[in-house]
Automatic annotation (TrEMBL):
It comes from Dyella jiangningensis. It comes from the Bacteria. GO terms for molecular function: ATP binding; D-glucose binding; glucokinase activity. The chain crosses the membrane at residues 252-276. Keywords: ATP-binding, Kinase, Membrane, Nucleotide-binding, Transferase, Transmembrane, Transmembrane helix. It holds the Pfam family Glucokinase. GO terms for biological process: glycolytic process. This is Glucokinase. CDD domains: ASKHA_NBD_GLK. InterPro entries: ATPase_NBD, Bacterial_glucokinase, Glucokinase. Belongs to the bacterial glucokinase family. The keyword Chaperone does not apply.
Amino acid sequence: MPFLAADIGGTHGRVAWMRVSHDAPRGIETLAYRVFACAAFPSLSTLLKAFIDAEVRAPVKHCVLACAGQIVGDEVANDNLPWPIQLTPLRHALGLDDVAVLNDFEALAYALDGPLADGGRHLCGPDAQLGGPTLVIGPGTGLGAAVHIPGAAGGVVLATEAGQMDFAPNSVREREVLAHLAPDGGYVPFEHLVSGPGLLTIYATLCALQGETPKLATPEAVTAAAVACTDALAVEAVEMFCAALGSFTGNLAMAFMASGGVYLAGGFLSSLFDLLKRSAFAVRFLHGRSARTLLAQVPVWVTEHGQHGVHGAAQWYLRHRMQASLRQAAEGGVSA
Ligand SMILES: Nc1ncnc2c1ncn2[C@@H]1O[C@H](COP(=O)(O)OP(=O)(O)OP(=O)(O)O)[C@@H](O)[C@H]1O
């Protein structure tokens, strides 16, 4: 039975047409795949319809969505998404029999025993896969994280909203940035600094602290200027971003005792790999923690986000919904 799998972030919608195939690796074959800019569409249904018209050209009955944010009943709650997502209207608009939704990093964690783990570049710690809980973390439009806990029948995946945890500064300069962002001591989540928009926020704040007018207007421009070493504050912003990502990753690795390792799978981290490797990431991953000995055994890799979200969503769908849908279809009914 073919089905649509989509990974919907704040910036990109990655969509695939897939089918169950016993000959394909992990039992699922990708028939078509495209990446869309979410902002170019007035709704999720129009984005998916554009894919169906271009690649499927036939009625689609089954769909799984991996979405950034929390799933509350029929809706996905996420301020980073360009439009609200409601499942029942989406099902009606596309004429679907079944639409299922899971968190986007939960989906990435379902790709862990496949291509996500295969393509990783080693960042720090031992370069060997150990057993135990494994984390997937990624700065993109937001800051996503999920954990895979091994066990019977493929183990368990937990979605998290860890990107919303309070940012804690680790240096005088970071304290200054935090004080600038929340002069009254209010809430600043990690996501406000450790994400694409967060990198721009760090840069703009460093400019403000320096009394300079920002010359760079996008996160991509900050990264490019840091890589080319053409702007000292862009270099400092990327260094602070990498250090804060190290703290965030170390916090989560400690909380989940992530002896299975960490995959950093953000949309743009690959372009920062060399800077990340030279940065304070590894120091801050271990910094001052009582669990240093455990954390020193935790491998960290950087991997592409790419198609892994749709692959993981497809694995989840196969495991949690497909068998039931196939049974119901055989009995002449449809699932919710
Ligand atoms: N080279 C880069 N340097 C810094 N930021 C970048 C770079 N390329 C893209 N970005 C930023 O990353 C964000 C998009 O990330 P990504 O491609 O992971 O999208 P997404 O999957 O839609 O995100 P999310 O799943 O977090 O909602 C945008 O804010 C974009 O400006």
